[in-house]
Amino acid sequence: RSLVVVHFLAPWAPQCTQMNDVMAELAKEHSQVTFVKVFTLQRLANRSLFEQSMAEVFSCRPQNCERIDRLDGAHAPELTKKVQRLASSTAVPAGSGAPAKEGLNERLKKLINAAPCMLFMKGSPQEPRCGFSRQIVEIFKQHAIQYSSFDILSDEEVRQGLKTFSNWPTYPQVYVNGELVGGLDIVKELVESGELENTCPKAVTLEHRLKALINKKPVMLFMKGNKEMAKCGFSRQILEIMNGAGIDYDTFDILQDEEVRQGLKTYSNWPTYPQLYVKGELVGGLDIVKVQYLICCIVKNVHSCINV
User: Fold this and answer.
1) pTM
2) How far apart are CA 142 and CA 187, in angstroms?
């Protein structure tokens, strides 16, 4: 017995192109299944644009073919499930491969949860290696979506395994909080409906990040090194003054984050380090802090802030 999947499609309907791609991928995965395309010459009566696609599955024996299933509409995940279920009935069980498959599934779970938004694509955001991946990267860039990516071309096991794991046979694939969102067409629909920003996390701008850092504590010192170990003479001197004045403060090591190091210079319009902030406002650098009057003002402000 063999399986034959017949795709009745309308060439003018864009969803049919996606279903063709899905069937092409399914054909690679299920070599024992025959896939056939039948073009309709006119619009199917009483069907919307999205429904201009229909698939029927036949079980064929010599001199006899019987229709055993049917799918109306361009529903890639549902078609994938049906083909996998029906094809498995003719497949030889691979008992020895079960542990390996279980291990792969655990790895896939870790990958799709590696970041709040994960994009599985061909290539990287810097160098996409297919048109669909390039388009989705551009969309994410235009809408300031924060995401991480995985190059499926670098790992064939992940490339093939994720299709089965997610019941989605094409790439790119987008996951949010470990749940499949879909591919390029779904992302485009989210853009058109205005739901993309509500579905995928927005990238935090540098300005917002800097504001959060300088307001992390009532007194914040941006320096080279930290409280325990200053890594330049200026930072060492300001630590001695702050500690001697009994000020409660926190530090940020600019040597650990080049983006913050360069960005804070522009944000505060102060080109050197260390930089001292009180209640989110720039006080200045070492020379300013050395002035005894300003030290007294800082102590007064800090104590009043803490008492509040």
Assistant:
1) 0.45
2) 13
